[in-house]
Sequence to fold (471 residues):
Amino acid sequence: MDFVHRKRVGSFEIAAHLDSGGMADVFLAYHPGSEELAVVKILREHLREAPELLAMFHDEAQIMTRLRHPNVVRVFESGAAEGLPFITMEYLAGDHLGVLARVARRREESLPPSLVARIALQAANGLAYVHDVTDEQGRPLGLVHRDISPQNIFVCYDGRIKILDFGIAWTRRREASTRTGLLKGKLRFMSPEQIQARPVDRRSDIFALGIVMWEMLTFKKLFKADSDYKTMKRICEEPIAPPSALRADLSAGLESVVMRCLERDRDARYQDAAELRAALSEYLLEDPGSHPKELIKTAQRLLAHRRAEKQQVIDSIWHQEELREYLFGDLQDSDRSDSTSIPAIDPRAVEDLSEEPAPDDGAYDWPEPAIEREHAPEPFEPIKPFSSGSPAPSFTREALQPQHSWKLPAAIGCGLAVVVVGLLALLWPSPAPLPAGGIEPGTGPGTLPGTGPGTGPGTGTGTLPGTGPGT
Fold:
C-alpha cells in the first residue's frame, strides 16, 4: 500500500488519496479532534493556468454551497489552498448507481422494477429542489444539472439517494459565459436538445433520468453506438425500444413513466421533476411487490464487500491518528505533515466496478458525515476565476508521497519498541551506594515511579464511522 503525507486543507486534514479524474484530485479527509470524515476535491495542478476550468470549478463551489437537500450531496466549505481551488463535501457511505448495477449483473440478478422506481423517485426529488433553487434575492437560478448518469447518482447503505457533481451545471447567469458548439456531459446520457446545441432547461435532466431508469431495468446501454456520431443519431432520430422488449416482467405503469421521460419533444415529457416524482409515487403505491426498505437491504447486500474494504481503510486512518497522539502528543509539533504518513487507497486493491468512470470525478465515493454542520449559504456571485500567480501547489499525489515507502506494521512496531526502551531507560532507578555497615532488612528500594494505578496510556477509542446504527 502506498503512503502520502497528511496535509491541512481548510478545516480538514487530508488522510488518503481516493482517485484522480480529468479535472480534480479527490482525497479522503478528517476533521482533527473528531471522527468527522469528508471528501476534498482539489483542481489538478496542471489546470491552474486554464482560466475557463478555474472559473468552472469556482462556479461549481458557489452553486453547491447554496444546496441543502437530503437528496443532494452537501458541501461543507470551499476556497483556495496554495493557489488551487478546493471543495470539501460530506462523506457518503455507499457507491454510485453504476457500481450497484454492475454487481447485480455479475451475479446475474436483475434490479426489481420497484427498486429502480424508488431510486428514480429520490433522484427526482433532488432534481425538483435543484431546479427551483434561488439566489440570495429569491430569484430562480434556472439550475440544470446537465450530467445526470449512474455515476452521479449515489446509493447510500442507509437507502438514501444523493445527486453528485455539479461541475457542468447550467444557470441563467452562466449562459453568457458558456461557449456554444460545445457538448458538456456524458454523450450517451444527453438529451436531443443538448446534442443539437439548443437551449437546455430542466426537462433535459428528466430525459437523462429516463435513460438511467431504462438502463437499470435492462442492463443495456440505450443509445451507445460504436461511434459518437452514431450515438448522437440514435439519441435524436432512431426509434426508442420500450424496456419491456428486453424485460418481460416489467409493468405497463412503470414503462409508461420511463417512455414519457424519453419523449424527444420536450413538451410531451414531464414538465418538471415534481410531476415525475408524483408519477413514480403513484406507481409504487399500486405495486404490491414494493417495500419501503428494499433499497436499504439491496444496497447492503450487493455492496457488502465494498463496504468492508472501505471500512478497513477508515479504521487504519483512526488507528494511525491514535498512535500519533500517543507517541508524539507531548511534542506539540506544529508541522504535522512531517511527523507521519497515511495510506492511499490503491485502485488495484479495491475492484473497480464502475462501467464508465466519469471524466470529471463522478465515480468517486462520498462517505457520510459523522457531524451535521449548519452553514449559511454563500451569496451567489458572478464568476471570479481564481488567481494563478500563487506558488506551486503540493496537493498532487506525487507531491504528497514520502521519499521512502514504509510498511505500516513495521513502522508501528519500531516506533513502539523505541518508546518502550526509552521509557525503561528513563524510569528504571539507579542503584543506591551500599552503606558502610551493609544492607539491613527492609531498606531496599521503594516502588518504581510510574507503576502505580492510573499511569498507563489510555486505551479508549471512539466509535468508528460506519459501525453505528443505520450505516
